[in-house]
Write a structure and sequence with these properties.
Blueprint: E1 2-4, H1 11-22, E2 27-30, H2 32-38, E3 48-52, E4 58-71, H3 77-82, H4 90-101, H5 104-110, E5 121-132
Parallel strand pairs: 1-3
Antiparallel strand pairs: 2-5, 3-4, 4-5
Domain ASCH: 4-131
Organism: Dactylosporangium aurantiacum
InterPro entries: ASCH_domain (IPR007374), DUF984 (IPR009326), PUA-like_sf (IPR015947)
């Protein structure tokens, strides 16, 4: 089973993990460039992940139910709300994701700061909580 590390360890990961455990986070988003850098194929529906917290402990198992590569400009309010982080709408979601994907953490990992326009592809992933651990 693959391991899912949301964001970087710390408050952002902890908030995401808490939202998964509470059942309010049922979606997450990635950049194709991150998968390319890892040498990994894009995720697919049916894959299961062990979600780890900031301490590296497995806390849940999730299963992807839908995966799509789509333009960032096509993400709608319903998807933004499914991210479980309290986004008001798709514009709020987009702003937060562009900020994260341009962060020092991501830029250092990728070796560049990504540019964004309405057509920039993102990997949208819907999932369901299978089991909580510990």
């Amino acid at each position: 089973m693959k391991i899912l590390e949301l964001a970087e360890p710390g408050p952002l990961r902890d908030a995401g993990v808490s939202a998964i455990l509470a059942g309010t986070k049922t979606a997450m988003t990635g950049l194709p460039a991150i998968y390319e850098k890892e040498g990994e194929p894009l995720p697919a529906a049916g894959e299961r992940y062990s979600v780890i917290d900031s301490e590296g402990r497995p806390v849940a198992i999730i299963e992807l139910t839908r995966v799509a590569t789509e333009p960032i400009g096509a993400v709608d309010d319903a998807y933004a709300h499914a991210e479980g982080r309290g986004y008001r709408d798709a514009a709020d979601w987009r702003s937060a994701h562009e900020d994260f994907f341009r962060s020092d953490f991501v830029a250092e990992y990728l070796g560049f700061v990504p540019d964004f326009d309405d057509d920039t592809p993102v990997v949208t992933q819907r999932f369901r909580l299978i089991e909580t651990l510990g």
